[in-house]
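Minutes, project check-in
Item: structure for the 721-residue chain
Input as provided by the requester:
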Amino acid sequence: MGKNRFLMIGVAFGALTVASGAHAQAAEEVPSGGLQEIIVTAQKRAENLQDVPIAVTVIQADTLSASGVSKINELSLVTPGLTMTSSGGGFVLPRIRGIGQSGATLGLENPIAVYIDGVYFASPAGAMFSLNNIAQISVLKGPQGTLFGRNATGGLIQVTTLDPSTEFGGKVAATLANKATYGGTLYVTGGLAPDVAADVAVYYNNQQHGFGRNLVNGKYVNDANDIAVRSKIKADLSDDTTIKVSADYARSKSAQPVFRAEYGTLPINKRPFTGGKWDIESDAQPLSRTEQAGASLTIEHDFGGVRLSAISGYRWVSDQVVLDNDGLPAPTTIFLPDAQTVVSTIQHERTFSQEVQLSSDNSGPLTWTAGLYYFQLKGDYDPPVVINQLNGAVVLTINSALDTKSYAAYGQATYALSDQFNVTAGLRYTKEKRKAVGSLGIVAGGAQVAFIPSEGDYSKGEITWRLAADYRPSEEVLAYASYNRGFKSGGFNPTEIPYNSFEPEKVDAFEVGLKLDVLDRRLRVNPSVFYYKYSNLQASIYQGGLLLTQNAASAEIYGMDLDFTAALSDQFTLTGGLSILHARYGLYQNAQLSTPDPVNGGNIISGGDVRGTRITNTPDWTANLGAQYRIPVGSDEVRLNANYAYNDGFFNDAENRQHQGSYHLVNASVEYEMDSGFTVSAWAKNIGNVAYAAQLYTSAPADKIRMAPGRTFGVTVGAEF
């Protein structure tokens, strides 16, 4: 999309502002049947979504269910500007408006921060988001460098779970689906004492048949076995003091990552892949096993005019991955940078975070929030990373341990210059310290030929900020403009020995947006246009089957997105969104390039300048549309749900050679709910069985692809009590 088209979008956006404002001023009363308020904590205080001068997409629990979204990597189906995939180790990889990471490795945090109940998750596993006690998910777009700040260069995903109730209740559901899948969910809450409540949520899913097979050994691949448990205790010690304690555990196991050679390409063994779309041909059976556990303590106290919040969080993650890096049916005896038989890693991470925050109440023209934040991450490989080359003739052993400490102080204030006009200013200072200790050992022919120890130290302080103004000409219209600076720390690649640090990335983001409740509050439309200037973008590349981070000097992103909700009647609701992006690299001279070798097969790997190419894994267009129609049947109800999502396609590599074309996805369900609380639902996801790439991967042995899941369908029976 060129700049002329972007200017046209801006003109149309301005026209929408005027037209909507004129209509909104005419509407003085809100009739029954209008859209209800949505309360969010995007500015770390409870506010109406339509009062927050930030581009936020909010997905309530009922919308998640109606849209067929049961896993975090499906959020892109209902969130414009968000693309979502997962790494081979089961970690989620969100990308908002072109900003994100293409892989996960030890100590590497995504520039899209993930918070659950205020606790930062440095390495979120997908199973943690499948629990049935999620009340709301908010996707904040653009740098959140003041109030949140922890590496939130591109935005953040904020998950809020249900608080327990002193009244006994809950819900239970069981699912039976294709691919020999069965599972269930359970949520129970109740009182332990007059002012103490507890709950427990359990999720289990076992997909025994994969979407494909490993043609070498006949075993299934791309299956799933997930379990997650979370519990929370809430104690109201007084009218002014509340304590919440929570703990969780999640485990995911699957035959992943499932890379195969792309159709129509010539691998290094000169045998093009001819198996099924979801099959692979690997001499090593892939394995991904992730365990994650944590606990948090939240203390809130109201001093009268000032509120104190203290959040402590501890998390532990263990991730095991076995990957046949060349993706070929037999070990290669040709020495290439990426021609290994097997890459085996087991990494462990332990994180601790502590935040103390003071905030004013909403009385008076000035509201403010200030706080201190501390974060520590310790990670290591245990046992060391082992890489077999030349069919085991050469063995590389990598030992690596990382230690990250981060300190921050922040403050943000909003002043009401009038009943209609507010200005906001925020500032945050972050000090980051990183240390790496490791070694590389090389054994050839059974004898050690090299041992290289290495240490690295990194320290950096940075100031980030937010400036914003919002104007409300009427109850139904809010217009806002903002300028934000985002920052993500530099660091070390844990498998690159000797260590070489990469630089921090920075984003200057300019945005203009609207929050509109029009047509007697039966239509809610929230559009925004934005411009990002990127410096030292941290780009992901794969070398030797291992993820490395390098800096692209600059990048430019601009575009628009919007989401809407329309209550067409008391029974019929539409939701949807649109994102249009122009995301291009600026100066990027050391990008990884790959040239297919038509004679020997595979690719010739080199480096070069890719100025002006599209940023990886970022489609120019995405759109979604959802519909829910409720039909009363006496005291019961039938709900018809459908959700459509479109992706314009994307490139995997900075040179824009590997490409996933555009694709369409459709989910649908029919649910019958009895007045007694008993429900029966028939559902289907990816109804068209569309085969598309979850991840593409260029290497010396071959161009490889990892497929997203195909069609799934099943029946869920549940009850609420």
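Outcome recorded: The CA atoms of residues 87 and 103 lie 6 Å apart.
No further action items on this chain.
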